[in-house]
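okkk here we go again. third time trying to get the magnesium ion bound version out, last two times i messed up the smiles copy paste (missing a bracket lol). double checked this time i swear
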Amino acid sequence: MLKVTDLGYWYDRQANSLFEHVNLNFESGTSYAIVGQSGSGKTTFLSLLAGLDKPRAGKIEINGEPINELGLTTYRRSQVAIVFQSYNLLTYMSPLNNLMTAMAITNAKHRGDRDYARSVLRKLGLSDQQMTKNVQRLSGGQQQRVAIARTMVCDAPLVVADEPTGNLDETNTKDVIAQFQKIAHEQHKCVIIVTHEPDVAAACDHAYRLAEHQFKKEA
Ligand SMILES: Nc1ncnc2c1ncn2[C@@H]1O[C@H](COP(=O)(O)OP(=O)(O)OP(=O)(O)O)[C@@H](O)[C@H]1O
Ligand SMILES: [Mg+2]
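finally!!
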């Protein structure tokens, strides 16, 4: 579904490339973990996959179409759901309205369906009371779960997440990983997760390690 060919990226000079000549395929219905040392370029790689930044070299195609030809704005709106390290929720709204707004903006098939949004938030462990108060009054872990719920109610076939369990305790981490597996296997989306946690990586269908400027499959 998502194909990366000869991808390269550097911030200041090519001599300081984070990665070069990267060739990878990501399929629907499958979850992937990206691991690697701090500063190796994982977040940067995700931002390229999400169409937030342009590669210095190589190309990214979705279902055979280069994402820059599709237009990065169109690509982001119609194809990608993102869970950031910081959650990027609409801070002046409740969890419920964050989901309703995301569905409206992306023209999702469940747009307007508050009961559906409520049921997804409930599945992620938010109480009816929590889902109607301002998201800024929720804990980090609760906000992270709202960000995950938002990807679930929208139709984007690609879900990228940057350390989605970074703020969660063990129980919530297990829940969240189970939800991501459902997004991949039941919603048939392509899920790509950057993580530092070996347990999270092991729970995904495949794992790649970014080291020495290359992505290598973990055993
Ligand atoms: N906007 C920027 N301008 C210049 N250099 C940057 C910029 N953003 C990141 N970098 C550098 O690029 C390298 C990779 O950063 P990136 O955030 O992709 O790493 P990461 O693997 O996600 O690390 P972490 O695990 O700590 O989140 C780092 O050395 C960082 O300092
Ligand atoms: Mg990072």
